[in-house]
Design brief:
The complex is a heterodimer of chains A (326) and B (363). By secondary structure, chain A is an alpha/beta fold. Chain A folds into two domains: 182 residues, Rossmann fold (3-Layer(aba) Sandwich), CATH 3.40.50; 127 residues, Rossmann fold (3-Layer(aba) Sandwich), CATH 3.40.50. In chain A, the strands form three sheets. In chain A, strands 3-2-4-5-7-6-12 form a seven-stranded mixed sheet, sandwiched between helices. In chain A, strands 9-11-10-13-14 form a five-stranded mixed sheet, sandwiched between helices. A two-stranded antiparallel ribbon of chain A has the order 1-8. In chain A, helix 3 packs parallel to helix 4. Chain B contains 13 helices and seven strands. Chain B has a five-stranded parallel sheet with strand order 1-2-3-7-6, with helices on both faces. In chain B, strands 4-5 form a two-stranded antiparallel ribbon. In chain B, strand 4 and strand 5 form a beta hairpin. In chain B, helix 1 crosses helix 2, helix 1 packs parallel to helix 12 and helix 2 packs parallel to helix 9. Chain B is globular. Classes of the chains: A alpha/beta (326), B alpha/beta (363). At the A-B interface, helix 11 and helix 12 of A face helix 4 and helix 13 of B.
C-alpha cells in the first residue's frame, strides 16, 4: 500500500499504462517539462521521452484532432485539456469526430482516446477555470464519460479508461487533487469496473447520488445527518455514461428518497437525466420527488461568490429536509 | 528540432529598432519617429507607472489579496508603445495581460484587480474606454476584433481596431481564422502579437518554425517584427499600421519581440522549465532603462524628474493597495445579476429561492 494524492494516483496510473503498452501517449499543453499545471503528468516526459509525452501547440482542437489521427494509426492518446473551460475549442472534434467516427466506419475504426479534464470549482480561480461541462458530453452518444472522486479510483479508472477501445471523457475533481489515500498498486483485483458506480456509504432513509468533487461533500452531509438520526446512503456514480442503473434503482427503491448533487447547473444538468430515469423506474417506490442540488442557472460566478454557488453540506441537508417534507 | 537562438540576447536582424538597449537613437529605413523631449518624458512616466502597478499587484497576490495575477513585467514598451499609438476612436481588444494598454485607455488600475481578486469577471465598460474586457480564453478576442473592424468599415468611420495576443495564441484556430477574415474583408485591424517567447512552459519553437511576423504573408497582408522592448519603435510601427488600416489598406501583423520576465501567472514556477541565463540576457534589454538612458544622455531629464516619477509611482502603488483592500465583496444575490439583458423567469425563481434559503440562516 502506498499513500498517494489524487493527482499522484493519476500520474502513477498513467505511468503504469505507459509501461504496459508502448502505444500509450500523453498529449497536451505544458504536460511535458512542466508536468502539467496541476503536475498530474509530472516526470512522465523525463522517463518516457518527448515522443510519448508531447507538449502540443496551444490549440485544443488540434490536440483532439491529432489524437484521433494517432489513434487511427494504432496509438492510445491520453489528452489533457488544461482547464474545463478550455475544452470548447475541442468540442467540435470531440462531438463531430471522436464520438461518431467509429459508427461512421461501421465498426472498422476504434478510437481509444482519453480526454482528461480537470473540472469543478472551489480553488478561487478566474473565469473558465471552475466549470463542470459534463452534460455537454453525456448528451453526446459515442463517448464514455466518467468522473473519479478519490485517489484509489483515480488510479484504477485512468488505467481502465486508457485500456478502453472507446473514447473516454475523464473528469478529474481539481479541488480534490491534493487529497490523499492508501492505494494498493500491486494488483488490480480490487478494481471496480470503471463503468460501474459504488455505494460509498450505506444508509436506509434517503439516497444521495453524486460524482467527482461532490462525493466528499455528500459523505460529510451523511455524517452530519446521522446526528439528526437520519441514515443517508451515498452513491458515487463514477460513470455517467453508461449509467449504472441497477445500482441507482436498487437504492432509490429501497430508500424512497433521492437527492442528486452536482456542481454543474441544475437546469438541464446530469441530475435531470437521473431524476427522470429514477421516476420512470421507481415511481411507486418513491416517497418524494427526486430533488436536485447544484449550481444556479448562471455562469460560474467570480471566486468571491463561489462558496454560495457551489453546493455545500448545508444545501445538501436542506434538500434532504425537503425530501422528508413530502 | 533546434532551439531558436534568437530567443537570447542577440537581436534578430529583421527587427525594427529605433532606440537601442543602451539608449542610443538609431535610424531605420522604413520607420521613423519624431518625439519632443516632453513626449519622451511622458512615455517614460507611462512605462514606470505601469510597472509599478504591476509590481503592486504581484505583491497583493502574494499577500492573498488577489487570487492570481498575470504580470506584464518586461512587456511595458510593447504595451505603452502600441497603446499610445491609438486614437480615441480606435478600439483595443486585450488578452488578460494588457495592463499597460489599459493604462493608455484610462482604465483605472483598480478595475483590473477586480477580476484577479474574484469580485467580478471584468469590471469596466468597454465603450467608455474603447478598450474591451479582458479575454482569458486564448485567442478568442482576435475574431471579435475583426468583427468590430468590419463594423467600422460599414459605418464609414475613421478608426481601426487592434487585437492583442501572444505567441502561444498563434496556434489557435480562432487566431488563424481571424487572419483570414481580416484579409479577405480588408478589415481595418492591427494584429499586435507580443511574442514574449513563452506560453506558460512551452517555448516559441513549439508554436512556430518561422518568425511569427512572416505568417502574415501567407494570409495576404504585411507583417513586421519590432523590438518589443523599444517603446519608440513600438509606437512608430503601430502608428503606421493603424494609419494604414484607417486609410483602407487592411490588416497588418505586428510581432513585438519581447520577453516575459516574470512567471506566466503568480501560480506558475518558470524555474521548472527555463534557464536563468535567458532572463539575465533579457534584463540588459530592459524597456524602461533604455528610455532613462536616452533622456539622461540627451539632457532631456534630470534626476529631479526621475525622483518625481518614483514618488508618483510610490503614491500610485500605495493608493492602489488601499483601494484594493477597500474593494467591497460582491453580495451573494449578485450571482443572478446580468445573466440576461431581459427578465428571465428561471433566474427570478432561483434568486427568490436562494434569498429565502439565506434568510433561513439569519433567523
Amino acid at each position: 500500500m502506498t499513500v498517494m494524492s489524487l493527482s499522484k494516483a493519476l500520474n502513477e496510473g498513467m505511468r503504469k499504462a505507459m509501461e504496459d503498452d508502448p502505444k500509450v501517449l500523453i498529449m497536451g499543453e505544458d504536460v511535458g517539462k512542466l508536468g502539467g499545471v496541476f503536475r498530474v503528468t509530472d516526470g512522465l516526459q523525463k522517463d518516457f521521452g518527448e515522443d510519448r509525452v508531447i507538449d502540443t501547440p496551444l490549440a485544443e482542437s488540434g490536440i483532439i484532432g491529432t489524437a484521433i489521427g494517432l489513434a487511427l494509426r494504432g496509438y492510445r492518446p491520453v489528452c489533457e485539456i488544461q482547464f474545463d473551460g478550455f475544452v470548447f475549442p475541442a468540442a467540435d472534434q470531440i462531438i463531430t469526430q471522436l464520438a461518431k467516427m467509429p459508427m461512421r466506419s461501421l465498426g472498422a475504426i476504434k478510437l481509444p482516446v482519453v480526454v482528461r479534464i480537470p473540472c469543478g470549482g472551489g480553488i478561487g480561480a478566474v473565469e473558465h477555470h471552475s466549470e463542470s461541462p459534463e452534460a455537454y458530453f453525456t448528451h453526446t452518444a459515442g463517448l464514455r464519460v466518467v468522473a473519479c472522486s478519490n485517489p484509489a479510483d483515480a488510479y484504477s479508472m485512468i488505467q481502465q479508461a486508457i485500456r478502453s477501445d472507446d473514447p473516454v471523457v475523464f473528469f478529474e475533481p481539481k479541488r480534490r487533487y491534493w487529497e490523499k489515500a492508501d492505494i494498493d498498486t500491486s494488483t488490480g483485483d480490487w478494481w471496480t469496473p470503471f463503468d460501474k458506480g459504488r455505494v460509498v456509504r450505506p444508509g436506509t432513509d434517503a439516497t444521495l447520488i453524486a460524482y467527482g468533487p461532490m462525493v466528499k461533500t455528500c459523505l460529510e452531509a451523511a455524517t452530519a445527518a446521522e446526528d439528526d438520526g437520519r441514515s443517508l446512503e451515498v452513491i458515487d456514480l463514477r460513470s455517467l455514461n453508461p449509467l449504472d442503473q441497477p445500482l441507482v434503482m436498487e437504492s432509490a427503491s429501497r430508500t424512497g428518497r433521492v437527492v442528486v448533487v452536482h456542481e454543474a447547473p441544475v437546469n438541464n444538468g446530469f441530475g435531470a437525466e437521473l431524476a427522470a430515469r429514477i421516476t420512470e423506474r421507481c415511481f411507486y417506490r418513491l416517497e418524494a420527488p427526486v430533488l436536485r442540488v447544484g449550481g444556479f442557472s448562471t455562469p460560474y460566478p467570480p471566486s468571491k461568490l463561489e462558496e454560495h454557488y457551489l453546493p455545500d453540506l448545508d444545501r445538501v441537508l436542506d434538500a434532504v429536509d425537503r425530501a422528508f417534507g413530502y | 528540432m533546434t532551439a531558436d537562438a534568437s530567443r537570447g540576447a542577440q537581436a534578430p536582424p529583421e527587427l525594427v529598432q529605433l532606440l537601442t538597449p543602451e539608449g542610443e537613437r538609431v535610424e531605420h529605413p522604413d520607420y521613423d519617429i519624431d518625439l519632443t523631449p516632453e513626449e519622451v518624458r511622458s512615455l517614460y512616466r507611462d512605462l514606470a507607472l505601469v510597472r509599478r502597478v504591476d509590481l503592486e499587484a504581484v505583491a497583493l497576490q502574494r499577500q492573498g489579496e488577489l487570487g492570481i495575477w498575470a504580470s506584464l513585467l518586461g512587456q511595458e514598451a510593447a504595451q505603452i508603445g502600441s497603446g499610445r499609438a491609438l486614437t480615441d476612436a480606435d478600439m483595443a481588444f486585450p488578452t488578460y495581460r494588457e495592463h499597460g494598454v489599459a493604462w493608455c485607455r484610462d482604465v483605472d488600475p483598480l478595475k483590473l484587480l477586480g477580476l484577479f481578486r474574484g469580485v467580478n469577471h471584468g469590471g469596466w465598460d468597454p465603450k467608455e474606454h474603447n478598450f474591451h474586457l479582458y479575454t482569458i480564453v486564448i485567442g478568442s478576442q482576435t475574431l471579435h476584433a475583426v468583427g468590430y473592424a468590419m463594423g467600422i468599415q460599414r459605418d464609414d468611420a475613421t478608426a481601426a481596431t487592434i487585437a492583442y495576443f501572444g505567441d502561444g495564441a498563434t496556434s489557435q484556430g480562432d487566431v488563424n481564422e481571424a487572419f483570414i477574415w481580416a484579409s479577405v474583408f480588408n478589415a481595418p485591424i492591427v494584429f499586435f502579437c507580443q511574442n514574449n517567447q513563452w506560453a506558460i512552459s512551452e517555448p516559441l519553437e513549439r508554436q512556430t518554425r518561422i518568425p511569427l511576423y512572416r505568417r502574415a504573408s501567407g494570409f495576404g497582408f504585411p507583417g513586421v517584427r519590432v523590438d518589443g522592448n523599444d517603446v519608440f519603435a513600438c509606437l512608430a510601427v503601430t502608428r503606421q499600421a493603424l494609419k494604414n488600416a484607417r486609410e483602407g489598406q487592411g490588416p497588418t501583423l505586428v510581432e513585438a519581440y519581447t520577453y516575459r520576465m516574470g512567471a506566466h501567472t503568480t501560480t506558475d514556477d518558470p524555474t521548472r522549465y527555463r534557464v536563468a541565463s535567458e532572463l539575465e540576457a533579457w534584463k540588459l534589454k530592459d524597456p524602461i532603462e533604455r528610455v532613462k538612458a536616452y533622456l539622461f544622455k540627451n539632457e532631456h531629464a534630470d534626476q529631479a524628474f526621475f525622483d518625481s516619477i518614483d514618488a508618483e509611482a510610490d503614491q500610485l502603488g500605495a493608493d492602489l493597495r488601499r483601494r484594493c483592500l477597500a474593494m467591497p465583496d460582491p453580495r451573494p444575490l449578485d450571482i443572478f445579476d446580468h445573466v440576461y439583458s431581459e427578465p428571465h423567469p428561471l433566474i427570478d425563481e432561483e434568486r427568490a429561492q436562494f434569498a429565502a434559503y439565506l434568510e433561513g440562516f439569519e433567523s
